[in-house]
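haha ok so turns out i had the wrong file open the whole time. this is the CORRECT one, sorry everyone. sequence first:
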Amino acid sequence: MIILSNNKTVKKASEALAELLKKHPAWLLLLLIGLLTVYLFILFGLYALKNPDPQVEQTNNKIELEVYQKVLERLKNREAKIQQAKEASYPDIFR
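then structure:
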């Protein structure tokens, strides 16, 4: 607990702050936004410290040769079909 030795100074500062916020109410909004931002940074920091990123395990993936050859052949056929479609001329349907 904080013990304040000079209550007059605290009272005077609080009255000055209250008077300032009466004259400029937008500052109260800025003060609240600032406090909310600090609060969110603290929450995010605590979450990041409590839950660090999981470590990714290294795995050795093996590709079967037959499956690879089939996929490669399909890709080649796909490219050939795309080229044929680009070269083909279609009649204009709006005539």
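DSSP finds three helices and no strands in the chain.
again sry for the mixup
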